[in-house]
Amino acid sequence: MAHPSVLRKSAAIERAEALGTTDRLLPEDSPARELLHAATADVVGKYDESFQTTALVGALARIVAAQEERIAELEASAASPRKRSQAKTAATK
After folding, report:
1. How many structural domains are present in the chain?
2. CB 64 within 8 A of CB 47
3. CA distance 69 to 11
4. Phi and psi, residue 44, nearest 5°
């Protein structure tokens, strides 16, 4: 089993990488981006593991929600041509 200090260091490295990656996935105008910035640059925030984790989870939730909306839009746009095609085929019969 790893020493607690090694685990803490590994977690800190992983959290820092996740914060950077997540920041790149957010739109420029996202409020979550400001929180992520505070989690990495703020004098207090960059040393508060709980704040960093909360900011990361909040940003990831926003990213997932945006992706779900995008998927729904794509599915709706893909279904529309099929429905028109089916209606046109039914009308010609």
Report:
1. 1
2. no
3. 31
4. -90, -45
pLDDT tens profile 50-61: 999 999 999 999
The residue type found at 74 is: L
Q: What is the pLDDT of residues 28-86, one digit of tens each?
A: 888 888 988 898 888 888 889 999 999 999 999 999 999 999 999 999 988 877 666 66
Spatial neighbors of 51 by CB under 8 A, at least 6 apart, are 38, 39, 44, 45
**Which residues span the domain enclosing 58?**
4-92
Gap between the Cα atoms of 44 and 31, Å rounded: 19
Q: What pLDDT score was predicted for residue 82?
A: 66
Provide the pLDDT for residue 93. 59
Q: Token digits for 90? A: 């039914």
Half-sphere exposure of 12 (CA within 13 A, CB side): 11
Using CA atoms of 10, 11, 17, 21 in order, give the dihedral in degrees to the nearest 10. 150
